[in-house]
């Protein structure tokens, strides 16, 4: 199988099983060394295979990170890891070129109260211009920025593998965490992408994902209240496990 990918994802996706070759998006597929019998868009495969809700393949992780990359980020996160400390990745904005970005975006100032949760340490998984929002807020010792070191998805994935949880809006970060088999909370707008279906808090695509949906249009406050409660519950559970 020859897989066509965005160039920035190629180093990470090249480790997936079943690939004979991986080429950059919009590559010249007529050249002799790129041989294939059929050209199929990725999202057409469920129809071709007759996939139903019951047969969606959910074997995660199906994206893997090189051991040296994982070890690198383990050494970084160890500095902030304690028996009762949750190490959490956070992302609040997606690709600004996407037409629906404004509906899924949450300003960093709105989620700032999450960082006040005792027993937590947050690593920013944010990319792009949204990182600059941190300059307008009081600095926090438990909000760590490693922006210059996660400019590629391989390092982002390596960091994720060393986190207890990822909290993110519906962006590539959510899909990457889900495909890595990392625990992830996906914060969704009221009108969300079709892949998240309707009226459910789990995802048939990613068994480690929990969905937090807006109860009404633009109601991020309702979402964040539930996230606060769930985070406190998770923190308390970690403290009990550490004490047992």
Structure, described:
- It is built from 8 helices and 8 strands; from the N terminus they run βαβααβααββαβαββα.
- The protein has 244 residues and is α/β, with parallel strands linked by helices.
- It has 2 domains: 2-48, no CATH class; 67-243, Rossmann fold (3-Layer(aba) Sandwich).
- The strands form 2 sheets. The chain has a 6-stranded parallel sheet, with helices on both faces.
- The longest helix has 24 residues, at 220-243.
- The protein starts with a strand and ends with a helix.
Low-confidence stretches: none
Adjacency order of strands in the biggest sheet: 5-4-3-6-7-8
Q: How would you spell out the order of helices and strands?
A: EHEHHEHHEEHEHEEH
Question: Main beta sheet, described?
Answer: 6 strands, parallel
CATH superfamily of the largest domain: Glycogen Phosphorylase B
Q: What percentage of the residues does DSSP assign to strands (E)?
A: 15-25%
Structural class: alpha/beta
Distance between the first and last residues' Cα:
49 Å
Mean pLDDT: 91
* Total individual domains: 2
Q: Please bin the fraction of helical residues.
A: 25-40%
CATH architecture of the largest domain: 3-Layer(aba) Sandwich
Radius of gyration: 19 Å
**CATH class membership of the largest domain:** Alpha Beta
Form type: globular
Task: Please provide the count of β strands.
Answer: 8
């Amino acid at each position: 199988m020859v897989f066509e990918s965005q160039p920035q994802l190629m180093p990470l996706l090249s480790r997936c099983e079943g690939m004979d070759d991986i080429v950059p998006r919009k590559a010249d597929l007529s050249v002799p060394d790129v041989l294939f019998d059929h050209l199929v868009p990725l999202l057409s495969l469920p129809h071709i295979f007759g996939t139903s809700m019951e047969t969606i393949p959910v074997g995660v992780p199906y994206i893997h990170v090189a051991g040296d990359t994982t070890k690198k980020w383990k050494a970084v996160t160890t500095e902030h890891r304690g028996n009762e400390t949750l190490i959490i990745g956070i992302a609040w904005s997606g690709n600004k070129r996407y037409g629906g970005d404004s509906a899924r975006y949450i300003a960093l100032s709105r989620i700032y109260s999450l960082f006040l949760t005792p027993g937590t340490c947050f690593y920013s998984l944010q990319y792009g211009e949204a990182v600059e929002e941190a300059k307008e807020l009081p600095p926090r010792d438990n909000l760590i920025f490693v922006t210059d070191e996660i400019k590629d998805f391989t390092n982002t994935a390596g960091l994720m593998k060393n986190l207890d949880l990822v909290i993110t809006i519906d962006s590539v970060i959510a899909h990457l965490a889900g495909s890595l088999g990392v625990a992830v909370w996906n914060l969704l707008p009221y009108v969300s992408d079709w892949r998240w279906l309707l009226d459910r808090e789990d995802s048939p695509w990613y068994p480690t994902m929990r969905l937090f949906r807006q109860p009404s249009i633009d109601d991020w406050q309702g979402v964040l209240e539930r996230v606060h409660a769930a985070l406190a519950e998770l923190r308390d559970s970690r403290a009990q496990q550490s004490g047992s």
